[in-house]
Amino acid sequence: MRVILIxxxxxxxxxxxxxxxIAAEALHAEGVxxxxxxxxxxxxxxxxxxxxxxxHDGCVIDDQVNEFVAMAKEADGFIxxxxxxxxxxxxxxxxxxxxxFFSARGKPYRGKPAAAIVCCRRGGSxxxxxxxxxxxxxxxxxxxxxxxxxMIHGNTPEEVMRDEEGVQVMRVLGRNMAWLLKCIAAxxxxxxxxxxxxxxxxxxxx
Length: 206
Fold this sequence. Notes:
With 206 residues, the protein is α/β, with parallel strands linked by helices. 42% of the residues lie in helices and 16% in strands. The protein contains 7 helices and 6 strands; from the N terminus they run βαβααββαβαβαα. Strands 1, 2, 3, 4, 5 and 6 form a 6-stranded mixed sheet that branches. Helix 5 (125-137) links the parallel strand 5 and strand 6. It is globular and about 50 Å long.
């Protein structure tokens, strides 16, 4: 089993990375592999609404989005991490997720557990977390929770590690993700698979 961790912070080993690493350690302890994808080190363009992806495999902007979607096809679960900017997810990961989910139209994600974690100095974390959850709930992905909302606080990695409750939230999140992955695998072995898909119904309001 493999979980992809997405670090949406421009700080390669900053606060968001620290939170993701705690969850990763818990996953490793349960026998689950992880792979970290670092965003934020290069410009991330938003969706152009060109609909190129409707006729081709992937986004017209060939960057980390297409790399991630290819990885997602072989992954079993996902944890997306973001810093909190103005009570919202960071601009880089927002552009990334808009395109990663729109261009793939949910196909690599259906039925696969997902979680978001957010890190902030003080406030705005619950709004940012709600924003990220929207991508999962529209894509038929089970959302993995913990003993509190998936947030951790601090202005430096050292401060993050002093947030004992936040550290516990990340650790329990990793274990809960591993448990759900094992339950899904056991169900599949018993003949319980993801429900058959209905043809989508579109209602436009004028």
